[in-house]
Amino acid sequence: MTHREAKVLRVASLARVEGEGALHLRLQDGEVAEARLKIYEPPRFFEAFLRGRSYTEPPDITSRVCGICPVAYQISACRAIEDACGTVVDGQLAALRRLLYCGEWIESQTLHIYMLHAPDFLGVDSVIDLARTHRTHVEQGLRLKQTGNTIMELLGGRAIHPINVRIGGFHRAPTRSELRPLAERLKRARDDAEATVRWVAGFDFPDAGIDTELLALAEPGVYAIDSGTPTAMAAPGTAGLPGDSDRALPTRTFPLHTFPDHVIETQVPHSTALHSTLDGHRHLTGTLARYAISGRWLPPDVLRAAREAGLGDPREGMVCRNPFRSIIVRAIEVLYAVGEALRLIHDYEPPARPYLDVPARAGTGHGATEAPRGLLYHRYTLDPDGTVTQAALVPPTAQNQAAIEQDLRRSVQERLGADAGAHPTDTELTALCERVIRNHDPCISCSTHFLDLTVVRNPGGPGPTKPGGSHPAYPGTAGREEAASG
């Protein structure tokens, strides 16, 4: 096969990514001329559903956006509505929200590490196959995820789409005695979390780096989860550094209410998800951004685990921009969430009431939290009786889509140039692209997992071929494939 062939390849099953999408690559004379991540699921119209509803309803409605990260949507909605109404939830009610969020971080990040990402590094197609070769580790992951689910069940009423969250707090607050067994379980989970960090740190990681700005919430003194100020770190290229530089760069902040002035959403023809830019540039939010911006505030034991895992010390200006190594940062965040949950339970005193009264009023409110996949922003405008007249939700995957496309372009270009005499097959490129996408843990939706890969090599070349099977350099790529002339 030469770079002058014309070919369209459709890979009709990408496991271990949440949602439906397609990737279009156009190669021209050995160069990546175009890389488009196409999200083609029908729009779900949540913003339209919210208009005309009571201001008490967004937490329950928006939790249905994602079955894996419903708490992120609930707490972001609560914060935005409370902001519009001039109410601040603090003290033990805020601590309970953070504890609930820790549960979601534990279950969601663990799911990605074990079920979606680790198979890429260990040469298997799925966690089912992984259980045959690494049973002890899979059981470890299941215990961790179940611990996160247990937190969500106790505080939220159930693990999926919790029903105990409301504007102003909770419908019911737990007693100290109800939290005591959870603390014992978390102590055991801490051992599993530490073992997870050591396990993933031993994987083989390709050299890589992503040259984009990083965006995350920051709250001095703590690792931001449920609140904070939007903070951006400059891209390495702006300082004349390579994309894989591990040097921390200057940051800038902006008030949350100006988020729509900085993060601009635009429609692109190839995707039903909006693309976003940060002050006119591609940006990345999520695990790597959080670690770069807030890593210096991790507790000493978590920082020690990060250093031993090869991430460097963020207190000394070290960051991680290698998307393949994001699995280590996720494991560090699980370890942090377990310890933070233990701290919150230890300090817990039941509030006098499980919620604050939040009287309706006219206004616009803004709320943002750190979903496992990155910064999630909500904005609501209310009329005087509390009816929602406008709603906007900006999820992390939509913000990351342009950066993922850039990472795909870079990764494929480096693979094409790795050995001028050995051109990669479409199967090899498919496998590489799947890995690159999974590095960023995109939540395209909560439905069927699906990827179509289209590779066009210099239109006008020979007719179709039909590659298949799995390549040893990129295991786990066998699937339903259909080739057609380009």
What does this structure look like?
- The chain is α+β, with helices and mostly antiparallel strands.
- The chain is built from 13 helices and 16 strands.
- The strands form six sheets. It has a four-stranded mixed beta sheet. Strands 3-2-15 form a three-stranded mixed beta sheet, with helices on one face.
- Strand 4 and strand 5 form a beta hairpin.
- Helix 3 packs antiparallel against helix 4, helix 4 runs antiparallel to helix 6 (135-156) and helix 5 crosses helix 6 (135-156).
Largest sheet: 4 strands, mixed
Question: Over the alpha carbons, how many angstroms does the gyration radius reach?
Answer: 22 Å
- End-to-end Cα distance, whole Å, is 15 Å
In percent, how helical is the residue content?
A: 25-40%
How does the helix and strand content classify structurally? Answer: alpha+beta
**Per the principal axes of the C-alpha atoms, what is the gross shape?**
globular
How much of the polypeptide forms β-strand, as a percent range?
15-25%
- What is the β-strand count? 16
Count, helices: 13
Topology of this protein?
Blueprint: E1 8-11, E2 20-28, E3 31-38, H1 46-50, H2 58-62, H3 70-85, H4 91-122, H5 127-133, H6 135-156, E4 165-166, E5 169-170, H7 176-201, E6 213-218, E7 229-233, E8 251-253, H8 259-262, E9 263-266, E10 275-278, E11 283-285, H9 287-294, H10 300-308, H11 326-346, E12 363-371, E13 374-382, E14 388-394, H12 396-418, H13 426-439, E15 450-457, E16 481-484
Helix pairs in contact: 3-4, 4-6, 4-11, 5-6, 6-7, 7-11, 10-11, 12-13
